[in-house]
Amino acid sequence: MAIYVQKDPFDPSYCLNTLQKDSGVGALVTFVGYVRDINEGMPVQSMYLEHYPGVTEQALGKIADQAQTQWPLLSVDIYHRVGNMSAGEPIVFVGVCSAHRQAAFDACNFIMDYLKTRAPLWKQEHGPRGSHWVEGRDSDLNAAARWDTLRQS
C-alpha cells in the first residue's frame, strides 16, 4: 500500500505502471479524477484543496486498510493532490490490484466513495465570478452509506 498526498502534479500513467508489483495480479482497476472546468453549470478556472498534513495521509491509509480487510487485495496506491490546481489537471488516482476483477472493482469504488466523504479535504473553486467552498453532496454520502450496510452484514 502506498499513500501520496502532494502539491506537485502526478502522471496517471506513471502511477498505473508502478502499481503492479506482484505476479499474482489478475486484475488492476484504477480511477483518475480531474479538476473539472465546469461544476453545476458554473465555469471553474482553478481549485484550491486544503488539508491537514499528516492527518490526511492517516485517513487515506485507514480507508485503504478497510478495503484490504474487506477484499483480497494485492496492492492499493492512492495519490491525492493538494494546494492549487488548474482545470483539467489530475487531482486523485486510486489503483487497486487483486487476483480477481470483482474484488478490484469493488475495492476501488469503496475507496473513492469513502475518500469523498471521510478524508479531511476541502475544495475551493475559483472562476470568473469569484471563489467559493464546495459543499459535500448527498449523492456522495449515499454512495458511501451502501458500503456501511455491506460491511455490517
From TrEMBL:
Signal sequence, renumbered to the chain: none
Please name the top-level EC class of this enzyme.
transferase
- Keyword field: Molybdenum cofactor biosynthesis, Transferase
State its Enzyme Commission number(s). 2.8.1.12
Pathway linked to the protein: Cofactor biosynthesis; molybdopterin biosynthesis
A Pfam family this chain is assigned to: MoaE
Q: GO molecular-function annotation terms?
A: molybdopterin synthase activity
- The answer, when asked if Transferase is one of the entry's keywords, is yes
GO BP annotations, alphabetical order: Mo-molybdopterin cofactor biosynthetic process
Which reaction(s) are listed as its catalytic activity? Answer: 2 [molybdopterin-synthase sulfur-carrier protein]-C-terminal-Gly-aminoethanethioate + cyclic pyranopterin phosphate + H2O = molybdopterin + 2 [molybdopterin-synthase sulfur-carrier protein]-C-terminal Gly-Gly + 2 H(+)
Q: Which family does it belong to?
A: Belongs to the MoaE family.
Task: Quote the subunit structure annotation.
Answer: Heterotetramer of 2 MoaD subunits and 2 MoaE subunits. Also stable as homodimer. The enzyme changes between these two forms during catalysis.
Record's protein name: Molybdopterin synthase catalytic subunit
Instruction: Look up and give the organism this protein is from.
Output: Pseudomonas fluvialis
